Amino acid sequence: MRHLVVGASLALAVIAAACGSDARPTATSTPATSAPPATSPPTATDPATPATDPATPSAPLSAEQIVFRRIATVHGALDIAHRSGDDTMFVVSRDGFVAAVRNATVADGHVLDISSIIVSGNEQGLLGMAFAADGEHAYVDYTDRDGNTVIAEFAVGSNGTFDPASRRELLTINQPYPNHNGGAIRFGPDGLLYIGMGDGGSGGDPDRRALDTGDLLGKILRIDPTPSAGRPYTIPADNPFINVPGARPEIWSIGLRNPWRFNFDRTNGDLWIADVGQDQWEEIDVATASTGAGRGANFGWSAFEGTHRFNEDQPADGVTMPIFEYPHGSAGCSIAGGVRYRGSAIPSLVGWYVFGDYCSGRVQALQVNADNTAGRVVDLGADVAGLAGISQAPNGELYVLSVETGNVFAVQPVS
User: What is the CA radius of gyration of the chain?
Assistant: First the structure.
């Protein structure tokens, strides 16, 4: 295992994020109405191209500059959340609890334990968490005992402990199958809550939900958690489908298969989505802040898998094509990530999009050009079994999580 360092100072991870192993259905529908752009994004096998992102230093990036140092071990860890003004690292476990890591020690007990009300395993469980800006409330995404997705709010005390009696359900979304549950939940630069929803599962989007604006599945949703108008949340007035007949007003973006993890670039507000593919292609999508950060965007599934035509009965027009895709094989089969690096510890990595793959365990960095096209890809030298995702600290530094081993690795410069 190259560049993985197991630290001895701490005793401190799952989803295959819908591994693209579903059987692809036979196409029996009408022909496509349009074709993808003539210029497809580069794949993992493309030759290197120079980056022009002014945020990226000219020094070449290489795996020899980086080490993955284990800093904690938490059973079933798959996400990390940070609270404003608090140095605690809140590690989210698929098993239904949140562990607090303080002063280089995993605290006894759990600050939140909802294991009794969830179902956990494979692509279900406690899948994501985000703190409100004031740190007084946290929002979680979990699978309830009926197999449905629940978005709930908890009050958080000044000591970082959650009040279980304060649980307030904002959304319960029916899940027709046990896979493709999404799980990412993030506050955007606008202070609103964004929720990633998979297409409902099975294989090939059998119910054609991802492009159906009357359905919440296969989307990114956007809400204000404040109750209003008889709902336990508020619909933002500028949501793109708020006045569209038959559409769900919570929808922000459509056409996603399983956006296991997405993040906003803390420098410019761009929305980056790692969308897990079907059985051939994994993709990375970006929606720039200057074009609405995904407002009303259609990312293509299931008309396309990556840039490749998939369900021909789904409309092919108006698609925001991925910035990057890679085929199933040595690079992996289930994207788990990622974050555009904005830390300072590794200058040569600044501006690169760092992502991993659950199947291969590889961590890679994608060079991003100033025009938001993809440059070269650098393998960062890690081999992380059961890689669940990439998280970032308030200072922009990165962590890699493994659900199989329970290890949390800090991405650090070689000293």
Answer: 20
- For the domain bounded by 4-20+39-413, which CATH number is listed? 2.120.10.30
List, in order, residues 6 or more apart from 64 with CB less than 8 Å away.
381, 414
What residue type is assigned to position 26 of the chain?
Answer: T
Closest CA to 222 of 243, 245, 199, 197: 197
389 by DSSP, 3-state: which?
strand
Query: If 0-12 CB within 10 Å is exposed, 13-18 middle and 19+ buried, where does residue 28 land?
Result: exposed
Give which of 57, 63, 132 is closest to 342, Cα–Cα.
Answer: 57
Cα torsion angle, 116, 121, 124, 127, sign: positive
Q: Please measure the distance between the N-terminal and C-terminal CA atoms of the chain and give it in whole angstroms.
A: 18
Asked if 260 and 389 count as a contact pair (C-beta separation under 8 A), the reply is yes
The whole-angstrom separation of Cα 177 and Cα 209 is: 13
The alpha carbon dihedral of 332, 337, 339, 344 has a sign of negative
pLDDT at 52: 40
Of the ranges 35-44, 115-124, 133-142, 339-348, which one carries the lowest mean pLDDT score? 35-44
Report d(CA 177, CA 139) in Å as an integer. 23
6 Cβ contact list (under 8 Å, min separation 6)? 70, 407
Name the residue type at position 149: T
Q: What pLDDT, on a 0 to 100 scale, did the predictor assign at position 266?
A: 96
Q: What's phi and psi for 236, nearest 5 deg?
A: -60, 140
User: Is residue 47 over pLDDT 50?
Assistant: no
CA angle 61, 409, 337 (to 5 degrees): 70
Distance between CA atoms of residues 143 and 139, nearest Å: 14
- If phi over 0 gives left and psi between -120 and 50 gives alpha, with beta otherwise, what is residue 162? beta
Cis peptide before 375 (omega within 30 of 0): no
| Cα–Cα separations (whole angstroms), residue 271 to 135, 187, 196, 250, 347 | 23, 12, 12, 17, 22
Element (H, E) at 171: strand 168-173
pLDDT-based confidence at 4, cuts 50/70/90?
Answer: confident
At residue 168's C-alpha, the angle toward residues 166 and 169, to 5°, is 155
Peptide bond between residue 338 and the one before it cis (omega within 30 degrees of 0): yes
Using CA atoms, how far apart are residues 221 and 241, in angstroms rounded to an integer?
A: 11
Q: According to DSSP H, which parts of 212-293 are helical?
A: none
What does pTM read for this prediction? 0.90
